[in-house]
Design a protein that fits this description.
The complex is a heterodimer.
Chain A: H1 5-10, E1 21-23, E2 40-42, H2 44-48, E3 57-58, E4 61-62, E5 64-65, H3 76-89, H4 99-119, E6 127-130, H5 133-148, E7 154-158, H6 167-176, E8 179-183, H7 193-198, E9 204-210, H8 222-231, E10 236-239, H9 251-254, E11 258-262, E12 273-277, H10 279-284, E13 295-298, E14 303-305, H11 319-335, H12 337-356, E15 361-364, E16 373-378, H13 383-392, E17 395-396, E18 398-400, H14 405-411, E19 416-420, H15 427-443
Parallel strand pairs in A: 5-17, 7-8, 7-9, 9-10, 10-11
Antiparallel strand pairs in A: 1-2, 3-4, 6-12, 11-12, 13-14, 15-16, 16-19, 18-19
Helix pairs in contact in A: 3-11, 4-11, 5-6, 12-15, 13-15
Chain B: H1 3-6, H2 9-16, E1 29-35, E2 40-49, E3 52-61, H3 64-77, H4 82-97, H5 123-144
Antiparallel strand pairs in B: 1-2, 2-3
The chains are: A alpha/beta, B alpha+beta.
Chain lengths: 445, 164
Amino acid sequence: MAVTRHEAVTTREAEAAHEAVTTHEGGNAHPGGTAAGAATVLDAERVREDFPILARTVHGRPLVYLDSAASAQCPRAVIRAVEDYQMRSHANVHRGVHLLSQEATAAYEGARDRVRRFLNARSTREILFVRGTTEAINLVAQSYARPRLGPGDEILITALEHHANIVPWQMVREQTGCSLAVAPIDLRGELDLEAFRARLTPRTRLVAVAHVSNALGTILPVAEILSAAHARGIPVLIDGAQAVSHRGIDVRALDCDFYAFSGHKLYGPTGIGVLYGRESLLAEMPPWQGGGDMILTVSFERTTYNELPWKFEAGTPNMSGAIGLAAAIDYLEALGLDAVAAHEQRLLEEATAELRRIPGLTIIGTAAHKASLISFTLEGIHPHDLGTILDSEGIAVRTGHHCAMPVMEFFGVPATARASFACYNTREDVRRLASAVRKAREVFR
Amino acid sequence: MELKDLYRDVILDHNRRPRNFGRLEHADARAEGHNPLCGDRLTLSLRLAGERIEDIRFEGKGCAISTASASLMSEAVKGKDRAEVRRLFERVHALLTQRDAAAGPELGKLAALSGVREFPARVKCASLCWHTLNAALERSAATVTTEAPEEAPLGPAGRMAGEP
């Protein structure tokens, strides 16, 4: 790849211009999208070569990484972008007149614009860099909800939420005396949309829902949720942590008010995430944290706050994280989000069929529309024992309550095993998973 | 790291048919153990005769290691006094966390847990029941004596040094 180090830092071109995406017509797809009208097929074997970690062995066996819903691996392009920044251009942003500070600022703000384009937001003023989805939701809770809500007001969530989209609202409830309403799910793990609509009341002041359930894979009907809430003038926050790597997000087409996601679930680094906020809402919200960079002037009597988005970014930000995230977006768009999604859906279908053949195995979460993850239990074998046995076979899955204890309680299980499929997983991974699950049954026979 | 060292026959047997499973009516002490990481819950109930554990039951949901460990523990501590239980836990704890710890004859069937130490992520599964027992005994000590509570033998019901 003939990219100079300087370019790698300051341009947002995909380092891995990809040959791993081919069209059925046989030609190369354009990086950054699917070739017009052609169904693209992802060559996962080629994609795997971009992810150095996948070459390692675990307990003497080739790694099968099926835990991308917890944290996806980084392609070489992301690792290099971070390395190049640290090796060549690191300095504090928005501060110095010296060259490195200018380069770092350009790279960091360039990353913000990259995210803006990824989300199709109107303006970089609507793109806030945060630590991750959790911090994004806490920001909205403390800066949007807390000052506005009081006793009698309601926040509406769903029964599918990750703890990060429950606990911040419980804290607001304690702080303001508002209440928290929960829209129920059915036994397939789908949101009961009628019940959701019925829970929108004149006192509902905010709706906060997952785009994709991390515990079950359910894709929520966010368009319907948004239109129902907006019909009553209620703003909506979408927790997109599990959605961004599986589908293109267009915040303008969605017309959502807040959208939160984490870099590390999008093949980027940890410690960086994004809160998209509608500018008119962000403009009225007070800063969340105070410190450097979020101010214009400070005296002991009075401080004036910086413009958006920096008003919400107190202190030195995570520059290398933002740059890594931008590189991850470049990488993913070069693969093509549609090609990745189609590949993952094929794996989901194959894995679902394969696992269903195993006696005693129950898939938890059978929604009609699912992202590529499967939560399951195995009769007579606790998920932790299963996790250990799979690990001994080199297979990484998540076991536990997936930070969604109310979901586990709803299905009457203490925990599940969860296999999640990403752009670099293959049919061979599915086959090895199924074979290891069968082995677990042998161990516990 | 060998799976068969972890899932020995004794462990699988006690997982399948846990001994002393259930709840004691009129218990002198109860304690609940909870592993927030995995959601496992365990409730112990004890009947005491002075310093001695006269009877013990456990209930709850957990993995094979935590169920078998609680089952093995319930058999091992029945009839023992507090000091003996404390010494036994120290031995079990060493067995679970120290690579070179030998399984002496005093451990009896508990020696089957020695494979756990090769699986650091699972040590807490095996020790949860012991921490819970410790909490139950401390609680009973606090309620049945009017004297200052004796020094907590193993610290509060949390993890011990060496546990991940």
